[in-house]
Every structure is written in structure tokens, then in C-alpha cells.
Amino acid sequence: MCGITGFWEVPIRSKNELNKMASSMANAIAHRGPDDSGVWSDQNVGIALGHQRLSIIDLSPAGHQPMVSSSGKFVICFNGEIYNHLELRAELDNQSNSGVHNGVKGTNLKWQGHSDTETLLTSFERWGVNATLSKTIGMFSVALWDVEQRTLHLARDRFGEKPLYYGWSGNTFVFGSELKALRAYPGFVNQVCRGALAQYMRFMYVPAPRSIYQDIYKLEPGCMISVKGSAPMVAPSQPLRPPAVYESLKITRWWSLADVVHVGAHKPIKNEVEAINELEKRLSNSVKLQSLADVPLGAFLSGGVDSSAIVALMQKEATKAVKTFTVGFEEAGFDESPYARSVAKHLGTDHIEMFVTAAEAQDVITKLPVIYDEPFADSSQIPTYLVCHTARKHVKVALSGDAGDELFGGYNRYFWGPRIWAKL
User: Fold this and answer.
1) 41 and 15 Cβ atoms separated by less than 8 Å
2) Which residues make Cβ contacts (< 8 Å) with residue 80, sequence separation at least 6?
3) Strand order in the sheet with 397-399
4) Ordered DSSP codes for 338-388
5) 54 touches 296 (CB < 8 A)
6) Do 43 and 249 touch, CB atoms closer than 8 A?
7) Measured between alpha carbons, how far is 63 from 33 in angstroms, rounded to an integer?
């Protein structure tokens, strides 16, 4: 992962001051991207961008951010990975070689490197923001500054895999990958949001669009914010939900899960064999795309259906044993390591286990407020931290089976809920 951040205020500071402030905000999330950092600002507008880089694709300086497009029209800060960026790059090259696109004569592209950030930035320049987003396959949060139109675009991926916060600190519009970055803005004094606190007590987390801080919000999955000319000076009285317009700020939904479900419900696959084959095909393609990296790659393995399926598909495509990671616990009721060990042996992975005592698990608790920034009452955050901590010693990227239970109804509550409700 990488970290993005920035702010837009009344243009009263020097470029040096803007860069210093953006750098301070980026440093607050340096753990997201320890390989490189950078800032960009325009003192005439009062906008500044900051970036922390975790190098996954193109480890060279050609992937440095914030990145300016070849024409100078756009500046981008990007967190995530565009899995189909090679296909997008090939499409851009083909259109460039053909000479004309959308009635405009093109010029041959001169790539500086092979990062997906450069591909995404060039796509924005050639195809526009909405058209590019619709073509992407990946996980991301992105801040894109249009120099000519003086417009800031903030966009988040379809399912919200990558975080993106935005809001107001005093009279300044701020944004970033984590609340830490926003808190690092000088003079941040936002109070705890009572509405968010009430939601946390009810749902055990703070659901979007609220955050735990007043006037600071989560950009919802599949949504984009565009701010043109100048950022609003005062926060809205209520959270904005798409579609909405607030002064110079516009929030839209560029992708809708509800629309996809609606279309799918009217064209169901009725043949079970066809459904299974199509599912395997989709999963295989997804795992193959997400295994592209210029750094060591591994996978988390619990021994359950979801992570086991992911690892099996990884190992099928790999030329050598995939590194897999599991956290085991002393308490037998919480220990899934025997199942993971059996799966790893069956698939022939290079399996690494970490066994944790109750005391070691408890030691993580004091770190959680720093890691998550706001209340989050999911007990899985402890083993997740531990397995990530272990994996980081061996690989830089890891695939997991997260969201399998959500997609396929794997949690016990999906079975027990209807039964209990029927009795009530």
C-alpha cells in the first residue's frame, strides 16, 4: 500500500510552507509507504499533495509521486494497484499509433517507466476521468489535480478496498489515506463526532460516510468528489451522500454495486456446472492479475475455504512454491494452524507458522488505536496484525481470502439470523 494526503486552503502561504505542511502530513502515514516520499504544491491556488510510496510495480525513480503528466495538465497521488494496467497501456499505445482518437490527432507516447501510476495518469489525460475509472480493474484511492481546470478529483475503488478520508479542518479542505494524516494538518482541532460514536456503539464500527471526527468523512466505495475553482470554506451541516452538490464540491457515484446486482438478478446462471466453471474462471483470472509484482509475493492461509482456494489458484500458476503464512494460538478453540498446515502440505507451499501466546496477543491491544485511528470492534484485527507482521519479514505483498464470507454467506449469522427471527 501507499499513502496519499493533501489540503486546499486560501492561497496565502509560500510554496516552501505548503510543501513543509504536506510533508508533515505524509510523514504521519510513512508506515504505508517507506520506500519513497514526495510533495507537490501550487502556491497560487493554495493546494498541496503529499505521497508515501510502497514500491510494488516499477521500483525505479520513474514511479515517484506526486507524478506530473507529460503535458503538465494533471498531477496524481495514487494508492493501490491497477491490475489491468498492461492492457490499458497497450490500448493507449495502439490508439497513439493509429494517430486519431475521439477526433483528436494523437502523438506517440513516450513512457518514462512501467508503473501502473504512469499508465493511470496517461489514461486520465487521454480518456478523461470517468472513462478511465470505468476501464480500471483494481483497488485504489486517488487524488488527481487538473492544473488547467483548477479541479481536484478524489476517487475510490468499487468496493472501498483502499481508504480515503476527506473533510474540513477549520476553513481548510483536507484529505488522506488515514486520519493520522489529517490530524497532522496544523491546527487540527476537530472534536469527536457524537453521531459517529452512536453508530459505533450500535454497529461495532463507524460506517461510511462518517468518521469518528466531526466534519471528517469517508469517501464511499465507487464514489468520486470533484472540487472546482476553490474548495468550500465551511463544512456541510450533514454528511454528503451521492449524488450531491455542495457549493463548488460535487460528489457522484461512478460505479454502483446495486446496479450490477440488478442486472445479474435478471440474467441468472441456472446451470450449476456452468456457475462453478464461471466462478473458477473469474477467481483464476483475479488471482493471476493480482500476482503481478516486482517484489516477493505471498499469501495468508487459515485453512478455511476462502484462503485455501486463493492459495491453490496461486500455486497452480506459480513456477515455485508460494510462501504462505499462518498465525497459531495456544488456545485450541482459536487455533486454525493444523488446518492451514494440512492445506499447505497438500498444495506444496513454503509454509511459515507463527505461534502466539495470550500475552503476546494482548500486547497488540495497546497498538490498535494507533493502527486504526478510530474505534473498530472486530477481534480479527489482532491476528491480522500478527500475520502481517510475520509476513513482512519475508514478502512485500500478500493475497488473502478476505471478503469471501461476505460474498458467499459464510458467517454463522447468515444461518442463525433467519432461524432466530422466525422464532421471534
Assistant:
1) yes
2) 1, 2, 138, 139, 140, 141, 142, 157, 161, 162
3) 350-356, 323-329, 297-300, 397-399
4) HHHHHHHHHHT-EEEEEEE-HHHHHHHHTTHHHHHSS-B--TTHHHHHHHH
5) no
6) no
7) 13
CA pair distance 150, 227, nearest whole angstrom:
8
CA neighbor of 47 nearest in space, from 85, 87, 78, 19: 19
Phi-psi region of 99 (alpha: psi -120 to 50; beta: other; left: phi over 0): left
Give the C-alpha separation, 331 to 235, whole Å: 49
Average pLDDT over every residue of 106-116: 84
Collapsing DSSP to helix, strand or coil, 76 comes out as: strand
Cα 74 to Cα 381: distance, rounded to the nearest angstrom: 37
Please provide the average confidence, as pLDDT, over all residues in the chain: 93
Active-site annotation, residues: 2
* pLDDT the model gives residue 104: 45
Count, residues in the chain: 424
Angle at which helices 358-365 and 381-391 cross, to 10°: 100
Distance of CA 62 to the CA centre of its chain: 22
State mean pLDDT over 359-365: 91
pLDDT digits (tens, 9 = 90+) for 132-178: 999 999 999 999 999 999 999 999 999 999 999 999 999 999 999 99
Q: Using DSSP, how many helices (H) and how many strands (E) does the chain show?
A: 15, 19
Q: Once rounded to an integer, what is the mean pLDDT over residues 4-11?
A: 96
pLDDT for 9-52, tens place per residue?
A: 999 999 999 999 999 999 999 999 999 999 999 999 999 999 99
CA distance 192 to 171: 18
Identity of residue 44: N
- Rounded distance, CA 48 to CA 226, Å? 16
**Which residues contact residue 77 at a Cβ distance below 8 angstroms, ignoring those fewer than 6 apart?**
4, 5, 6, 49, 50, 51, 65, 66, 142, 143, 144
How much of the chain is in helix, strand and coil states, percent to nearest 5? 40, 25, 40
β-pair type (350-356, 323-329): parallel
Facing residues of 257 across strands? none
